[in-house]
Specification:
Elements: H1 2-23, H2 33-39, E1 46-51, H3 56-66, E2 70-76, H4 80-94, E3 99-100, H5 104-107, E4 115-118, H6 122-134, E5 138-141, H7 149-162, E6 166-168, H8 176-186, E7 193-201, H9 221-225, H10 251-255, H11 257-268, E8 275-281, E9 294-300, E10 306-312, E11 324-330, E12 333-338, E13 343-347, E14 352-356, H12 370-388, H13 396-415, E15 419-420, H14 432-435
Parallel strand pairs: 1-2, 1-4, 2-3, 4-5, 5-6, 7-10
Antiparallel strand pairs: 7-11, 8-9, 8-15, 9-10, 11-12, 12-13, 13-14
Helix pairs in contact: 1-8, 1-12, 3-4, 6-7, 7-13, 8-11, 11-13
Length: 450
């Protein structure tokens, strides 16, 4: 067993180091990522479009454009300022300026495009990925993979129908020490794990009360709304506060909870729960914020175990010494993974048995941004799936399962009920009040189809 573990650890370490070097152009001495890119023939590069580049999408654009086997050929954003900023940043990395195309419906039809990266608001995630799938494009899809469970099922069906590669952006699935920690859990490091506690804390400010305002000249609000039924523009919605409105967003549970609940599901090796409950509310401020700022979700998998998620959007006090994390409780101890690339194993007397530090398996001496190199591993795994049919670390069925868990938590919260779930498919049983949240209404003509 020890030999197997060491072999796996060596493999993960070597993969991480190779990916880190690849992402920063460390393949050959004296070569930058841009210069190394010129060695690779154009037909070897995956041609990518970035959708939604104001914040997370801009960071992803920087990382994708640093990959020598990739070229960003299009930037798709309804904010002309964000689009131009991203195009300029990408040009510095790859020495070629991508084109701007704000309309995703046109973009996916272009022949010089292999893959779409979706980092637009949540209400766009599944519809955009489905459009791309129908057009024969591969998709790297930020979490959550869908705005509601019905969309998640449509997305899984679309991938199965069209056979493209869809990777969800729960990048910790590709972080080497996190992978090692989950493998240690599966190998019995704490005996049989039966409970995973997950959490996220922040100290977000009030979003106030929005006022009707003229649509800014730099914003195509019609395209921003896309599949969502039309609502008037208000001055406290764009670019981030949409997260806290059910019409467009999914709250903190899916904004940040998806990451750690995904690790919990991976670690416990479970799929769909039997019962789901949630308590919480908007407690800190009286404003337009609709989703909970404090929420506790319980996911009961019967004799397979339990997952909990605590969301503290407006109180930054850490949990278990970290602002974000998951801790697994088992027969002989506990294993904790925080937001970084590390893990700690404890015995039943709360003594540290093993601690693997952040980035311990990544040679960061020549890296300007080690966390960027960690995420590059997830990108390269996506590319391997496209080029070689390699196994994805976060395929869309797995992504849908993890997204569904927190969606069910939100449905329990909104319906004020304990949900009984079919553990074979994740569907809600005998609860019409909760079932109404399984899907949403769409702007006529914008309905996604599998």
């Amino acid at each position: 067993m020890k030999k197997r573990t060491n072999t796996r650890r060596d493999f993960i370490r070597k993969t991480a180091i190779g990916t880190a070097a690849l992402s920063v152009g460390g393949i050959l001495p004296g070569f930058s990522a841009a210069s190394y890119r010129q060695i690779i023939g154009a037909n070897e590069r995956i041609r990518v479009a970035m959708m939604g580049v104001n914040a997370r999408g801009l960071a992803l654009s920087q990382n994708f454009s640093l990959q020598p086997n990739c070229e960003i050929v299009y930037v798709c954003d309804v904010d002309t300022r964000a689009a131009e900023k991203c195009r300029a940043a990408v040009e510095k990395n790859q020495q070629r300026r991508p084109k701007a195309e704000p309309d995703i419906r046109k973009l996916v039809t272009y022949a010089d495009l292999d893959a779409l990266v979706v980092a637009a608001p949540d209400h766009w995630h599944a519809p955009a990925a489905i459009l791309a799938s129908q057009a024969g494009k591969h998709v790297y899809l930020e979490k959550p993979c869908s705005h509601n469970p019905h969309e998640g099922e449509l997305l899984v069906a679309a991938q199965q129908k069209y056979g493209n590669v869809i990777q969800m952006g729960n990048q910790r699935r590709s972080w080497p020490n996190v992978m090692e920690g989950i493998q240690a859990l599966h190998d019995g490091a704490i005996g049989r794990p039966y409970f995973a506690k997950t959490w996220y804390t922040n100290n977000r400010a009030s979003i106030g009360t929005g006022k009707a305002a003229a649509i800014p000249e730099w914003l195509n609000y019609e395209l921003w709304q896309g599949p969502a039924p039309r609502r008037p523009f208000k001055d406290n919605l764009i670019h981030y506060n949409w997260h806290w409105f059910w019409h467009w967003g999914t709250g903190e549970a899916l904004n940040n909870g998806t990451h750690m609940v995904d690790l919990a599901r991976w670690g416990l090796q479970v799929d769909y729960p039997e019962k789901v409950s949630s308590l919480g509310g908007r407690y800190r401020y009286q404003d337009d914020w609709e989703t909970p700022d404090t929420q506790v979700i319980q996911l009961d998998f019967g004799n397979k175990g339990l997952i909990s998620w605590e969301g503290h959007s407006c109180n930054g006090r850490s949990v278990e010494g970290s602002s974000v994390g998951v801790i697994f409780y088992g027969e002989t101890g506990a294993l904790q993974i925080n937001g970084d690339n590390g893990y700690t194993i404890y015995d039943l007397k709360n003594q540290v048995i093993k601690r693997v530090e952040h980035n311990a398996n990544v040679d960061s001496r020549n890296l300007t941004n080690p966390s960027q190199a960690l995420d590059a591993g997830h990108i390269q795994n996506f590319f391997d799936g496209i080029k070689n049919g390699g196994k994805l670390h976060a395929d869309i069925l797995s992504g849908h399962m993890s997204t569904l868990l927190v969606q069910l938590g939100n449905i329990a919260q909104r319906s004020g009920s304990l949900l009984h779930i079919n553990p074979a498919n994740g569907h809600i049983l005998d609860n019409p009040g909760a079932q109404q949240y399984w899907r949403r209404e769409y702007e006529p003509g914008w309905e996604p189809a599998g």
